[in-house]
Amino acid sequence: MYSLAILTVAALLLSLLLTPLLRDWSIRAGLMDRPDQKRKLHAVATPRTGGIPILISYVGAYSVLLLLPLHGGALIATHFAAIARLLPPVAILFFTGAFTAEHARPVEPHDA
Length: 112
Prior knowledge:
112 residues, mainly alpha, two-stranded antiparallel ribbon
């Protein structure tokens, strides 16, 4: 029970801390998705890097849980080999989403 509460609070706090920082960095770095009224219909330019603080918060919360002497941390440590096998596909998905061709140029329906 405590493990789940700590996991939730850690993820929440990390998300609340990291999201504004990454948003501001994205604005300064020009990593914005600008509306074109064709495919991108949002009203104002939106940062493209929203997945980064989510991933960092997810990993950070589980790291906190792993470091604390609770049952949830022991459960993660017991199954760490299975978790480690999932990291390469997660990294591939993350970096594919972060650096897709759509970020470099617009993707037309016939390109997909």
